Amino acid sequence: MMILKVENLRKEYETFLLDDISFELEEGYIMGFIGSNGAGKTTTLKGILGMIQTEAGDVEIFGKNFKENEIAIKQDIAFMTGSSDYYLRRKIRVITKVVKSFYPNWNDAVYENYLRKFKLDPEKKVMELSQGMRVKYSLALALSHEAKLIILDEPTSGLDPVARDDLLEIFQELVEDGQKSVLFSTHITSDLEKCADYITYINEGKIIKSTSKDELLDSFRLVNGSEEDLKTMKQDLISYKINSFGFLGLIDTAKLSRYPEINSEAPSLDDIMIYHAKREETHAEAAV
Fold first, then answer.
1. Helix, strand, coil: what percent of the chain each, to 5?
2. Which one, of 188, 190, 254, lies nearest residue 221 by Cα?
3. How far is CA 15 from the centre of its chain?
4. What is the C-alpha separation between 5 and 25, in angstroms, rounded?
5. What is the CA radius of gyration of the chain?
6. Is the pTM value of this prediction over 0.90?
């Protein structure tokens, strides 16, 4: 079952355009939504959830039009950001009482289990929690009403490596039964290499690719060679860096066969993001 379908989403600001965003997420999988800061990740997620007014586009969740069924659909969605916007001087117990009143499907047993798992004291005030513990509390709230689609905006940002790894394990546990899906945005690509099944990559408001993680990595190659090699293949490179040995660049795998003698290797997700981000800069330099 297609749990999320986004088609031609568009949002225009004075200095930024979210342009023709389309991707799909199947039930039972984790999708990482990657891009540099300012690429359009948060704007896209807010557009999907109706938190901002978009100029165009359609969103289907659980096979239903989101705009026509927003209230009912949101009962089965969990949304969380990496920052906590709760009243800092309120106790966890008090905040939870307010939040649970909005969800008929709230499950106290699940919530209590997350409190124990995360070692959260309900009598503590939010201001007494570390950043990592605040994120875990937000996650406990988000996951305690039997949500089928979990959407997370930079959930691991600001966490130490141990806390991030704990969170990623939870995401993997959530989809084990094949009935839940996770969509989470991040610029920390190492997190995705551990747990994501699919990757949607956005750059400057446009989707570069939306596919399985392995297919995305296979779509590009890192190449290196001499300055002479660069002259012959510069037009086919996404971007490149000059170094003391010649150059290092990124190329579409489909174009690699044009250069049988060039050295190549598989890129990381970081490499793909970095070289796409440098694309305009590289092409501007080439035009001079």
1. 40, 30, 30
2. 254
3. 22
4. 7
5. 21
6. no
Q: Is 100 exposed, middle or buried (0-12, 13-18, 19+ CB in 10 A)?
A: middle
Q: Which two tokens stand for residue 267?
A: 């890129």
Element (H, E) at 90: none
For the residues of 32-86, what is the DSSP string, one character each? EEE--TTSSHHHHHHHHTTSS--SEEEEEETTEETTTSHHHHHTTEEEEESS--S
Spatial distance between the Cα atoms of 179 and 186, rounded to a whole number of angstroms: 23
> How is the chain split into domains, by residue range?
2-216, 219-287
CA distance 147 to 76: 4
- Is the domain covering 2-216 a CATH 3.40.50.300 domain? yes
> What's the mean per-residue pLDDT of the chain?
91
249 DSSP β-pair partners: 223, 240
What DSSP string describes 184-205? EEES-HHHHHHH-SEEEEEETT
* Spatial separation of the C-alpha atoms in residues 46 and 63, rounded to whole Å: 19
pLDDT of residue 115 exceeding 60: yes
- The model's pLDDT over 180-229, given as tens digits with 9 standing for 90+, comes to 999 999 888 888 888 999 999 999 999 999 999 999 999 999 999 999 99
- 212: buried, middle or exposed (CB in 10 Å: 19+, 13-18, 0-12)? middle
pLDDT digits (tens, 9 = 90+) for 240-286: 999 999 999 999 999 999 999 999 999 999 999 999 988 866 654 55
pLDDT in tens, 40-55: 999 999 999 999 999 9
- d(CA 77, CA 235) in angstroms, rounded, equals 45
Contact 213, 198 (CB under 8 A): yes
Q: Kind of pairing, strands 149-153 and 181-186?
A: parallel
Q: How many alpha carbons fall within 13 Å on the CB side of residue 207?
A: 19
